[in-house]
Amino acid sequence: MKIELKNLSHTYDVEVLHQLELVLENYKSVALIGVSGSGKSTLIRIMSGLEQPTEGEVFINDMSVKDKEYRDHVGFVFQSHNLFPHLTLKRNITLVLEKTRGIEKKEAERIAEERLTQLHLEDQMDKLPKNVSGGQAQRASLARALSVNPDIIFLDEPTSSLDPILTHEVLTAVEELKQLGKKFVFVTHVMSFVHDFADYVIYMDDGKIVEQGPPSMLDKPKTKEFQAFMNKVR
Amino acid sequence: MKSKTKIHFEKNAGTYIAYVLAFLTIAAFVAFVVLAQTEEFRIVGYEAYSSLILEGIGNTIYVSIIALLGSLVLGFLLYLMSISKIKYFKALDDVFTEIIYGTPLLVLIIITTFLISPAFVDQINRTWTGIIALVVYMGPYMKNVYKSAFSSISEEQYMAMDLFGFTPYQRYRYIIIPQVIRILMPPMMNNFSLIIKGSALLNVLSYNELYYTVVVAQSKTFAFIEGYVLMWVLYLIITIPLSQLTKYIERKWSL
User: Fold this and answer.
1) Does residue B32 sit within a domain?
2) Which end of chain A, N or C, is more open, meaning fewer C-beta atoms within 10 Å of its C-beta?
3) Partner residue facing A50 (CB), from B157, B162, B179
């Protein structure tokens, strides 16, 4: 995938992203790391098209995130699963496919079953989100994001509301998807996952990109800020 | 599996015993009160008025249902006003709600019938002025029901709807309304109980509802206390199944 940030700034009440410039090409899974409030969540939301930047441009695979069709090309998984609570896991997927992609019922069901099985949820398909574990719900959320066949999947701390075992369960599922050629941009606090899974890492602090490079950069931080961060998360 | 069933059974048995004890406590209280009476208890005299009282029950249910429907509509309008971007609507809702919160229902029924309605129409129909008063009184409470129901749909769900590109119609039809109805049901049913009990006050307009019909019967039987006991039991017969139904729906539909 190709990611381009051009003079990207974003302001809520205060500035959270400051004049970011970046060009990345041919990476399959990019990790955004940094302390809370560093701007990484805002950046991933802007890159996914969920929020419009107040200044600058973002191009993903040569497509501006401001384009209306851009959203059809991406998937997003949130910190906590955002499945619709009144629908079964399967219906959560078929509703999206039938109503927003115009796929007919039978085909939508086939896709939903395939995706849920891919994420090892074949026995949970007909349950409501409240009746499955947090890890299962998060995987179903991932299955739903996958079902529309996105070019890139954005994961915003997908495991932050899960315990270590469920975290492992979700991250294993993500790794399996990467084997299948899916592309990811993700925010996480699980450094071992960044190590094993990412092929490019961006460290952010105070709305700026402070360090970037291959995952091996985690072992030899150059800046004081990154050094301090790594000491805390290790 | 076996131990799970056993725990389940023990928990159920515990609840069951607790309820039996609670009923016995109330029964003992009733028995004590009954035995302490020196006067004769003459409920038999009311038999002759059973068809009148049945009609009263029917009317109570009838006005309550209309008032429920009316207050659902008014409540929704107030809800829309309360979330409106136009400040005037917000303020109007706020002022109206404050006034209603501070007003006794009985006062509202009388003012609506004898002061407000005559200002608008020549020939007032007391059944309808009574119902209107009930609707106006319940409006702000119903507004709150809508408020809590709509606010329970998380920000993240709206983001998901955005992300997948659901149209506004699809959002309401498939995602928002099905959830809102489930959340709305229990508090709405509680308000329905309030309406049923509140409708007793329509007796001041000589409207033939349950309370009024029993009062009419009382004036013939002269068994006043017995009449109130009868009334009490009849209201409980209407409201308790309703609240049981509410609890059932709450369990069955919870998300």
Assistant:
1) no
2) C
3) B162
In a domain, B10, yes or no: no
CA distance B217 to B45: 9
A58: its two tokens: 């973002």
List residues in chain A touching B: CB distance below 8 A.
Answer: 48-50, 71-72, 74, 76, 78, 80, 82, 84-86, 95-96, 99-100, 128, 130, 148
A63-96 pLDDT, tens digit per residue, is 998 888 888 889 898 888 889 999 999 999 999 9
Closest-approach residue (CA) in chain B for A72: B164
In angstroms, the CA A229 to CA A220 distance is 12
Query: Is residue B230 within 8 Å of residue B166, measured between CB atoms?
Result: no
In this complex, do B255 and A71 lie within 8 Å of one another by their Cβ atoms?
A: no
Domain count, chain B: 1
pTM of the entire structure? 0.74
The tokens for B55 are: 């009609």
- Give the one of B160, B174, B179 whose C-beta lies nearest to A82's C-beta: B160
* pLDDT above 50 (res A173): yes
Determine the Cα–Cα distance for residues B111 and B106; give it in Å rounded to an integer.
Answer: 9
* pLDDT per position as a tens digit, A18-53: 889 999 998 999 999 998 888 898 999 999 988 889
Residues in chain B with CB shorter than 8 Å from the CB of A49 are 163
Structural domain boundaries enclosing B73: 37-253
Q: Would you state the structure tokens that stand for residue A56, as one six-digit string?
A: 């600058």
A136 min Cα distance to partner chain B (Å): 17
CB–CB contact A100 B164 (8 Å)? yes
Query: Least CB-CB distance to B159: which of A82, A86, A130?
Result: A82
Contact predicate B209/B202, CB 8 Å: yes
What CATH number did the domain enclosing B175 receive? Answer: 1.10.3720.10
Average pLDDT, chain B: 90
The verdict on residue B83 lying in a domain is: yes
Local structure of residue B105 (DSSP, 8 states): H
Contact A86 B156 (CB under 8 A): no
C-beta atoms of B163 and A50 within 8 A? yes
d(C-alpha B68, C-alpha B79), whole Å? 16
Point out the residue among B154, B157, B163 whose CB comes nearest to the CB of A71: B163
Does residue B9 sit within a domain? no
Bridge partners of residue A212, in order along the sequence: A202
Tens-place pLDDT, residues A148-161? 989 899 998 888 87
Would the CB atoms of A84 and B175 count as touching at under 8 Å?
A: yes
**What residues contact A39, with CB distance under 8 A and at least 6 apart?**
A10, A16, A17, A204, A206, A207, A208
SS3 of residue A34 by DSSP? coil
